[in-house]
Amino acid sequence: MLYGRAEEQAAIEKLVAGARDGRSASLVVSGPAGIGKSALLEHAATAADGLRVIRAQGVEFEAELPFAGLHLLLAPVLDRIGRLPGPQAGALAGAFGLAAEAPSDRFQVGLAVLSLLAELAEDGPVLCLVDDAQWFDRASVQALTFAARRLHHEGVLLLFGVRDTGVPPEPAGLPALHLSGLDGDAATALLDDRAPGLASRVRARILAETEGNPLALIELPRALTPEQRAGELLPLSYNFGALPLTERVRAAFSAQASRLGEPASTLLLVAACEETGELDVVLRAAQSLGAGPAALEEAERSGLLVASGAMLVFRHPLARAAVLQGSPLVRRLAAHSALAEALAVSARPDAGDRMAWHRAAAATGPDEQVAATLERASHRAAGRTGYIAQAAALERAAELTPGASARARRLLAAAEAAVAAGDLRRAAAIGRRAAAEPGEDTLGPRIGRLRAAVEFELGSPRTAARVLLDASTGTSGPLAVEMLIDAVRNGYFGGDPDLALEAAARLRRAAGESPFALGLDGLARLMTGDVAYAVPRMRALTHHALSGPDPALGPGQRLVAGAMALITGDDDSAMEVFGPLVSEARDQAALGLLPIALEHLSIAEFFAGRLRDAGAHAQEGLVLADTTGQTHRLDHLHCILAWTAALSGDEDRCRDLADAAIGRALERRNIRSAAWGTLALGLLDMGLAKYGQALDRLDAAAQGPVGTHYAATYFAPDQVEAAARTGRPDRAAGPLRRFQAFAAASHRPWALAVAERCTALLTPGEAAEEHFTEAVRLHGDGGRPFEHARTELLYGEWLRRAQRKAEARARLRSALRTFQRLGARPWAARAGAELRATGDAEATAAGESPLDRLTPQELQVVRLAAQGMTNRDIAAQLFLSSRTIGHHLYKAYPKLGVAGRGELARLVHAEESPGR
Known about the structure:
The chain is built from 47 helices and seven strands.
C-alpha cells in the first residue's frame, strides 16, 4: 500500500491504460533518495495487468560499461533481435557482445531499441521499468531516450526512476514527475503502520526529522534498539544537527550492517563492490577472502541483502552506499582485487571489461599494466559505439599511467571519445588536462582540433577557425588538410573573410590544386565579393562531385559540394547531391549526418518551389537534431522553417522562429544562421508590404557581419524592390550591382531574370518594359518559381499602371496561380487585388490541395506509401515504428479522401506539378 500518492498513482494508471489502447508514452519519476520512486514504479507493474513487463535497475559503480544497463533490461527479449532490420540487428548484437563488432552510427543502437520495443508490442502492450536510471551507463540512457522520443502509437510505456543529483536528470527531454515528501497525515499513517509501539517522543522525533521521506520513516525505526524504541535512550546517530536526511538514512543502514559478524560483513562488502549482483562471482570472490556460504545466510537475515535467483540485490541503494562508506579503504581494495580474480574465470562476454575496472579500482598508484588493460577495454567499447564508456576507460587509464607522454596521449584520446559521444563539456575539461601535461608537443594539432570542435558547437565558429589555423601550423599530411578544410568553413560560418582566405591559401598549399581545395578557395573569395573568381571554382567542385564516384569525397565532402551548388544558384545540382545523400543516410541509419543532409535538401527544395517537402524535411531535421543533441544545428533549421512561415504570411510563427535564433547566432558569431533568419524576416516584411521596415532591416544586415554571407546576395533583390517602393532608389544601387555581378557569374537563368527585374524597377518610363520582357523570357528556362511569379506580379502591376489591362491580366493570373500553388498567401492576395483592379472576375482563391491538409510527418509517410513501400520499409526510412506509420496513414486517408493505399499513388501523382 502506498501512502499519500493517490494523485501520482492515478497519473501512472492513466499511462498504463493508454498503453493498453496502443498509445506510447514515457515518464521520468524523479526525487531524492527514498522518496518513493521505486514504489511508484512497482505500482505501475502491479497495475499493468495484461502488459508485458521488462525491467532493470541501475547500480552505482565507478565503471562505465557500455550498454550494460540496456543489456540487463532487454536480456529477456533478445531472441527477437533477428526480426530487426539487418543493420539494426547487427548494431544491437555488437553492442551486447553477441556478435562481431561492426562500425555504425552511435545512434543506431537507439534505433534498434525503438524497433525491438515496437516488435514486442506487436504481441501486446509493453511496460519498461528502469529504476535508478541515474546509474545506468550513459550509452544505455541515450539509446532508451532516443527510443522513448520516437515511440508514438505502439502501446509501449517507459517509466524511469531517477534520483535527484543536483544536475538536470537523465534521461533528458522526457515528461517528468517530481516527488516530494509525504504530507503530515500520510507520514504519520506510514510510520504507525511500519513501526507500531514507538514511544510518543520517539515517534514525534522521527516524524520531525524524516521530512515525509518514506524510506526514512521505514528505516530509521529499524535501526533502533528495544530500549530506544521505548524512549529510554535516544540513539547518538540521531544527533546530526544539519546533516542531510540522506546521510541519516545511510547511518541507519550502517547501524544495521555493524551488527553482522566478520564473514557476513565481508560478503556484504564484496556484493556492494560488484556492480551486476552476479551471485557466483560474489561468492567466488568472498570465498577467497574467507567468507563462505554461511555468511550469505547471515547477510540475508539482516534484510540488507536479498538473493533472487542467481542475483544479489540490496534492499536499497543507500544500504549499498552505507556498506561501502563504512568499510576501510584497505578492505575495499581487497574486495575489488578478489572480484577481478573471480571474473578472470567468468565466461560472460563483458567479464574482461569488468575485470579491468576492478583491477583499476584496486590500484593504489600508477600501474602501466592496469592502464593498458583499461585502454584495451576502451577499444572494445569504441567498437560497440560506446564512446562514453571509451572516454571513461581512457580517462581512468590516464590516471594510472606513470609517464607524462603516455598519460597525455590517453587523456587526449578520452577527450576525442567524449566528442564522438556528444559530451562536449566533458571533452573540453579532459582536453585541458591533456594540454597541461609536460613535454608532449606532438599532440598539439590534435588538441587544437579537439578545442575547435568544442568551440564550434558551444562557442564561436570564428574562434574555432582561429584555433584550427594556429594548431595546424607546421603540420602536414591528411590531418593538416582536414583541419584547414574545417578552418575555411568555420571562417565562412563566422563571417570572417580574412580567416577563411588564410585557411584557403594554406589548404591549396597542403592539398594541391584539387577541385576541393579550389572550391573552398572560391568560397573564401566569395566573402570578399569577388564572385567572378569564386563562382566558377565553386561550380567546378559541384560538377566534380556529380561527374562520377570519387573515393576521396565522403559524405562531408559531398555536403560541401552540394552547398556550393546552393550558393551559386544551381538548385538542380544541389538536389542531385542532397537527394541521394539523404537516402544513403536513411539506409545506413546515419543519424548524425541525416539532420545536416535534410537541412541542405530542404533549402534546395524551398528554392525549387517544393514548399511542402522543404517544410517536412526541415521539420524532420529539427526533430532529429534535437534527438541527437546537435544543438548548433537547431537555430539554422528554425530559420529555414521561418522561411515557410514567411512565405505563407504567418507573421507570429516566423518571428518566433527567427528572432530568438538570430539573437543566439549573432551572440555566438554564427553568421550563417543569422543570415538565413534575416532572409526570412525580410521576406516576411516584403510579403506584408512593410517595405520601409524591410529596407532598413536588410540594409543594416548587409552592412554588418551578415554581409559576408551569400544570403546577402539573395536578399539584394528585396532591397532593390523595397527601395523602389519607398522612393529611395539611391539605396538600391549597391544591392543591384551586387546581384548583377552574381547573376553574370552564375549564368543561372533565374538569376539573370531577377537582375533584369530589378533593373526594370529602377528604370523610369517605358524603357522599363524592355527589362521586364527580358526577365520573363529568361524565367521561361525554369528555376525558382516564386521569383518567376514575383517578376510577373511586378510586370503586371507596371502594365496596369500603363493602362494595358488585358496584358496585365495575363501576367497577374499566372502570378496568382503560382502564389496559390506555393501557399504564398500575402503574395496571392496582392496578385488578386491587382487582378480585381483590372476588372478580372477570376481573381478568386484557388482551392487547397488535399496534400496541404497533412502534417509534415503525414506528408512524408504518404509520399513513401505512394511509391509502394510497406509500413516496415517506411518505418526504417523515417526512424519510426511500423505502428506509428500505420497511425499516420489512418489519419491521412480521410484528409485525402481516399479509402486505402491503392488510391494514394494516383492522387499524389496528380497533385505533383511544378511548384508543388
